[in-house]
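hey so u asked for the seq, here:
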Amino acid sequence: MGFTNDPGDRQADILVVCDLLVDGAASLIHDREASDVAIFPLPSGDVWAYWAFSAVALDYIQVGDQLTVNDTDFQGILEKYGRLIIDPDTAEKKLNGNNYLSSNSAYIGQHKDEILEVMAALANDDSRAAYSRVLLGEPEAHWAHYAKRAYQNIQYFDYLDFDRCQVVLNGGVFGGYELPYFVTNLPKGAIVHNFDPLGHSHLTEYARPWVESGVVNFVDNAIALDKEDGSIDMKILGDGQASEEKDEKLLSETTTFPARSIDSFVEETGFDRVDLIKFDLEGGDMNAIKGSIETMKKYRPQLALSIYHAASDFWEIPNMIIDNLPDYNLYLDTYSFERWETILYAVPREFGPGSTNVA
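ran it, structure tokens below
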């Protein structure tokens, strides 16, 4: 076992291809079924994924039946991530309560009935445990879950049957961290319509050659998604993302972008199938879902929906799906060590039970 920058160097039984920027690597992914080649993209640039976590946490991870990090060490990791704040009374660093819904238990309690509806609709114990943890769990519970699963699965890629996905509508792109995984998981020749007000302009250097590889056909739609066609005013995050979130401390200038509803776009484009819809729209998710309901009803695609940008998203978005899409199995997991990156999966019941990589 070793590392090489020469794809022609086959001293090992299997060549693992992680980076298409290496000369000759891009040609190998067209033969991804070859027995001596393993295509293994990295979540490069995704701050919540194991790659970034490894950069600061490897020395703290304890290896046993499961990966663990003790609570004191995890707080040290959070400090390295810049996730702690200064207590104005003591001038000491502490956890940011806004990153954990358990700090707002009174508000959560006001929506108990809606939350119980979601809990009853979730299809397995793991999802119910994840939902309870993200709503009520103390920070230590989030950390333990993250350490257990960070190296086992990738956000948006649990529970779904990608062999069925020839046409994908992908709302929210920015750096394109998930796009290499579409290349390796979707059937060859599948079409992925990317929707982002900034288009492909912010794709990372790592992601771009995967998009340009031609294994999967990516279409760049530089538009925002909304409940109806028109335009939308969005603010720009410090890292350049366009966002509908309301936290003024994180946002600066406002820019007007053209907007479409998925229902209008699909009707105009003349699709005969839609197999997967993924949304992670920085606060615009509910409106985009409202503008997609007819498409969802007609084509019954699999869904991977972010439900974490506003606290109310945790029950309003799942109940929107429950009310409009009968006979779907619902699953849920969180892909950060806080409340963020919580994804609702919805799979037509006729596909059978969904599965996840977490042991």
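The chain has a mean pLDDT of 93. Residues 125-136 form the longest helix (12 residues).
lmk if thats what u needed
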